[in-house]
Specification:
Layout: E1 4-7, E2 10-13, H1 24-28, E3 31-39, E4 42-43, H2 46-59, H3 68-81, E5 87-94, E6 112-119, H4 122-131, H5 154-165, E7 172-174, E8 180-183, E9 187-191, E10 197-199, H6 210-221, E11 226-228, H7 233-237, E12 241-246, E13 250-254, E14 256-257, E15 260-261, H8 269-284
The structure holds pyridoxal-5'-phosphate.
Pyridoxal-5'-phosphate binds next to helix 6 and strand 12.
C-alpha cells in the first residue's frame, strides 16, 4: 500500500512528501516529535502524548501549528487515507524554514508539521512480547559528544538565541566547573596580561575548530605563545583581550562578556593582527 503523509496542509504520496532543505529540523534538529500507537482506529494514550507535545513546543518557544482538536482530526484523516486501524503514527513539528542561522528566525516563520503512519502487525508483536526481549547496557552520552560536528545543534541554537536576547553576538558556554568551553558556533580565546593566547584544550568536550587549529599554527609563526587550557569566566572578564574563531567569523574580537567590558572595551591589537594574517594567508591559498 502506497503511504500518504501529511505535510504542511497537504496529504501527499510519500514519494512526493518533502520539506525544504532549509527546514530547521534538518539543519539544527530544531523541532519536536510525538508518536502514538494506533489500536482499533484510536490513538492510544492520546491525551498524554498531546500534553507532552504541547509541553515540548512550549519549552522550545515554538508555535503550535493548530489546535489539539484540529491536529487530532488531521492525524485521524492521515490514518484513514492510509487505511490503518492498527499501527503507529509519527508527528514532527519544527521551527520552520529559514535561511541557516542558529538564532530563531526573526520574524518567526510558520512551523513545519508532518505526520506519517505505518501499519503494525500487533499479533506478531504479541508473539515477541510472549518471548521477552534482551537489552544491552550503553553509556548515557546524550548529548556529550561535542567533538562531532553533528547537526544535532538544538542546545547551540538555544544558547545563541539566549545570547541574542541578551544583546550579544555569541554565547560562551560554561561547564559545571565554571570554565568556558567554547561558543555556540565558535571557539573561545582570551589574551592574558603577558600576551599569552589561551584557548580551551581539546581534551574538553568541544568541537575541534579548524580555524582554531590554523590560528595556533599562525600564532607559532608570529611567535605568540599559546596555552591550551581551561579558563574561567572571571579570568576572561579580566583578560586583556578576548576573541572568537570560526570559518564563519575568522578571528572576531570580543569587547564585552556578560556586560563587563574586556580590556578597554575596544577590539584589541592581538585579535586584529591575527585576523589580518589569517585572511591574508587564506586569500593567498596557504
Ligand atoms: N565550535 C562550534 C560549536 C562550532 O559549531 C564551530 C563551527 O561551526 C566552531 C567551534 C568553529 O569551528 P571552525 O573553525 O572549524 O569553523
Amino acid at each position: 500500500m502506497a503511504g500518504v503523509a501529511y505535510v504542511n496542509g497537504r496529504y501527499l504520496p510519500l514519494s512526493e512528501a518533502s520539506v525544504s532543505i532549509e527546514d530547521r529540523g534538518f539543519q539544527f534538529a530544531d523541532g519536536i516529535y510525538e508518536a502514538w500507537a494506533v489500536l482499533g482506529g484510536k490513538l492510544a494514550d492520546a491525551a498524554g502524548h498531546f500534553e507532552r507535545m504541547e509541553r515540548s513546543l512550549a519549552e522550545l518557544r515554538m508555535a503550535q501549528p493548530m489546535s489539539r482538536a484540529a491536529l487530532k482530526l488531521v492525524i485521524l484523516e492521515t490514518l484513514r487515507r492510509n487505511r490503518i486501524t492498527e499501527g503507529f503514527c509519527y508527528l514532527q513539528i519544527t521551527r520552520g524554514q529559514a535561511p541557516r542561522d542558529h538564532g530563531f528566525p526573526n520574524p518567526a516563520v510558520r512551523p513545519s508539521l508532518i505526520i506519517t503512519c505505518k501499519p503494525v502487525d500487533y499479533a506478531a508483536e504479541a508473539r515477541k512480547s510472549e518471548k521477552g526481549v534482551a537489552v544491552s547496557t550503553q553509556p548515557d552520552i546524550r548529548w556529550g559528544r561535542c567533538d562531532i560536528k553533528t547537526v544535532g545543534l538544538l542546545p547551540n541554537v538555544l544558547a545563541k538565541q539566549a545570547a541574542r536576547e541578551a544583546g550579544a553576538y555569541e554565547a560562551w558556554l560554561v561547564d559545571s566547573g565554571g570554565m568556558v568551553t567554547e561558543g555556540s558556533s565558535t571557539n573561545a580565546w582570551i589574551v592574558d596580561a603577558r600576551g599569552v593566547l589561551i584557548t580551551r584544550d581539546t581534551r574538553a568536550n568541544i568541537l575541534r575548530g579548524v580555524t582554531r587549529k590554523h590560528l595556533m599554527e599562525l600564532a607559532a609563526e608570529l611567535q605568540m605563545p599559546v596555552e591550551e587550557r581551561a579558563f574561567s569566566v572571571e579570568e576572561a572578564k579580566d583578560a586583556k583581550e578576548a576573541f572568537l574563531t570560526a570559518a564563519s567569523a575568522f578571528v572576531t574580537p570580543i569587547t564585552a562578556i556578560d556586560g563587563k567590558q574586556v580590556g578597554d572595551g575596544r577590539p584589541g591589537p592581538v585579535a586584529a593582527r591575527l585576523r589580518a594574517h589569517y585572511i591574508d594567508k587564506a586569500r593567498r591559498g596557504d
